[in-house]
Write a structure and sequence with these properties.
By secondary structure, the protein is an alpha/beta fold. 53% of the residues lie in helices and 13% in strands. The chain has seven helices and eight strands; from the N terminus they run H-E-E-E-H-E-H-E-H-H-E-H-E-E-H. A five-stranded parallel sheet has the order 5-4-6-7-8, sandwiched between helices. Strands 1-3-2 form a three-stranded antiparallel sheet.
Length: 260
């Protein structure tokens, strides 16, 4: 992973924090200065923390675990959905379903219900329902798709969550903390960095800033996925090669026994 270019972060407006009166004092180590009543984030510290975060994310992905992206605010949701899809990771961009992590079994049941409805439509069972029942089933399917469609392939708890704006996503952060799931997050000057395991000090309100950080993060995740694929292929080749001598050996034994 190439080092993050501070100028690119600057051009994307990653350095713009909140109004000074809205700051969280715990963010002081990441603030460079105050300008026109706004806190300016130290982008050198952002770049360093971003490097830490992407290296940790890569390791999680190489291990085969998923990263759950969370962003329900208007300026972030479309960007997060697009970036998460590009690396085949689950995401929540609508309302956070209470118990999404802490009551994962129930959430999985709801996802299975959605799959069952799809099966009904495929095998023709749906067509045997009355008009009213079809309407009810379609409404339920639509609701489930909106809230849970993006996590339908997440069969177990994620290896980590990535949050845009921890203040806005308090419940997801609390649930991850409870289960000791690592939290990665874009943290602005008005938020508490102590809630996060891997903080990326950054402007979490501007779409340009969110796009830049997510692009870097997802590039690292893709690298992790590629490495995992290569490792699996190498392991597969290695196992097939190791069986070859055994086959040759057994042939020799068979040949000897036939001579006798």
């Amino acid at each position: 992973m190439a080092k993050t270019d501070v100028k690119e972060l600057l051009d994307a407006g990653v350095h713009f924090g909140h109004l000074t009166r809205k700051w969280n004092p715990n963010m002081a180590p990441y603030i460079y200065m105050e300008r026109d009543g706004i806190h300016i984030i130290n982008l050198y510290k952002t770049a360093a923390k971003l490097e830490e975060a992407v290296n940790a994310l890569k390791k999680i992905v190489i291990s085969g675990r998923k990263i759950l992206f969370v962003a329900t605010k208007k300026q972030a949701k479309d960007i997060v959905a697009e970036k998460a899809k590009s690396v085949d990771m689950p995401y929540i961009t609508e309302r956070w379903p209470g118990g999404m992590l802490t009551n994962f079994v129930t959430i999985r049941k709801a996802v299975k219900k959605m799959v069952a409805i799809d099966r009904m439509k495929q095998d023709g069972t749906f067509e045997t329902l009355s008009k009213k029942e079809k309407l009810q089933v379609d409404r339920l399917r639509g609701k489930l798709e909106k809230n849970l469609g993006s996590i339908s392939d997440m069969s177990r708890l994620p290896g980590a969550i990535f949050v845009v704006d921890t203040l806005n996503e308090k419940i997801s952060v609390q649930e991850a903390q409870k289960l000791k799931i690592p939290i990665f997050a874009m943290v602005d000057t008005n938020s508490d960095p102590g809630e996060v395991d891997f903080i990326i000090p950054s402007n979490d309100d501007a779409s340009k800033s969110i796009e830049k950080i997510l692009s870097i993060v997802c590039k690292a995740i893709q690298e992790g996925l590629d490495e995992r694929k290569q490792e699996k292929e190498a392991a597969s080749e290695g196992s097939s090669e190791s069986t070859e001598p055994e086959k040759t050996k057994s042939k020799k034994i068979d040949a000897k026994s036939s001579k006798k």
